[in-house]
Amino acid sequence: LFPGARVQCDFNDADCITRTSQASYSDFVNGIPGVAPSDPLRQDSIVGNLPTIKYTIKDSVMSGFKKCSVKLRVQCDVSDADCITRTSQASYSDFVNGIPGVAPSDPLRQDFIVGNLPTMKYTIKDGVLSGFKKCFIELKRFMKDKTFDYQLRCPQLTLVGEYDLKGDLLNSYIEGKDDYRILLNGNYETQKRDGKSYLRFGTYTVNMDAQGKVVYDFKNLFNGDKQKADAALKMMNDNWKATDEAMRQPAMEAFMKVFVKNINDYADKVAATDIFSYEQ
């Protein structure tokens, strides 16, 4: 290009649009022929009617806009998995801590869980699964066929509760601690409200992959017989992977139902266009 040539920003080039918007901002805020200045802004009269107070402001002046800078909010393309993942992580803490109308997701609670396995049956009463605040999103992506992948990495999840179990396998399950990767795959749909898009997650499957050793700690195994209990715990912890793979699915699926419900509640309150966007 020749020196001094004027180059048009591509509409999708957020860096270019932000930079050039900032360059023209001073002209805008100072005013040009036919456009009033925006610093200061003036209002002759303002009336505020609130539930417990009423106020009026006369001859009001708001100043300081000359010192402002331009930041554009850039929307992720739905097929851009890197952008979707990055912006999802930014909003994850709000989701997991809960917002008005959306329950917190750490800890998750289940009053009663039943696990019916081929060689064993167990129940968990007053189950509590904690550790989601320390999780991070490894991947989140949406496909054109209205399916999604959601991968969550959790350095440590802890499950506690009152258990009752009978069976042959490795004979126990209740406090488990581990580094888990949680994979949710399923279908989603979009809904339009007030000019914004909202997501709704439908049917899904859950897969969990233990990334490190699971540690089990059970109380009152074999009705308090310490010798038998110690031997059972040693066998479970020595064979933690087989124990985990055989027993985790009923319990974790029950907790994931609560987790996905909270995701849908959050997605109903916060538009996808707000979640999957970032300031440039």
From TrEMBL:
<dbReference type="InterPro" id="IPR010562">
    <property type="entry name" value="Haemolymph_juvenile_hormone-bd"/>
</dbReference>
<dbReference type="Pfam" id="PF06585">
    <property type="entry name" value="JHBP"/>
</dbReference>
<protein>
    <submittedName>
        <fullName>SFRICE_005821</fullName>
    </submittedName>
</protein>
<dbReference type="InterPro" id="IPR038606">
    <property type="entry name" value="To_sf"/>
</dbReference>
<dbReference type="GO" id="GO:0005615">
    <property type="term" value="C:extracellular space"/>
</dbReference>
